[in-house]
């Protein structure tokens, strides 16, 4: 993750503020960029941002991953399996180990920019709701957490329409409410009264 700051991204002198959307491991990468160059980032959208103490040690994370596999749609297998096979099991374990060690929760609770985190209610790689609310007392007011009921870790695959709806509402500054035309039910997790960029129910 540390390599993000050494890519020359900051030296390119991008004049516009960008929104970064990171899924799973893309969440820690996006968080690292935002902490390294907050003046370049207008906001973050993190879908299933894994990593950190809930996934440690590695053995625990592997068990969580195995549980998630059983909760995902079988249609996901032909989508991801070729990439995993091409990357190789050793590289995969090493990369997953790096993800587990990354302090995602600490970075998220100290995010310097407006941030939306979207998690699935059936994702074993994410902390339980009660733990999220407990930790939410430490969260900044510009952090919004939304849960999609019925989704596991690959929320972008199982519930793409609902995820896109939530992101669109947040980016437009609208209240985040469930889209009845999409699968799953979205709800804002109130971390404390008045938190977040939108109103909703949990």
From TrEMBL:
It holds the Pfam family Abhydrolase_6. It comes from the Bacteria. SUPFAM superfamilies: alpha/beta-Hydrolases. Residues 17-165 form the AB hydrolase-1 domain. InterPro entries: AB_hydrolase_1, AB_hydrolase_fold, Carboxylesterase_BioH. This is AB hydrolase-1 domain-containing protein. It comes from Actinoplanes ianthinogenes. The lineage of its organism: Bacteria, Bacillati, Actinomycetota, Actinomycetes, Micromonosporales.
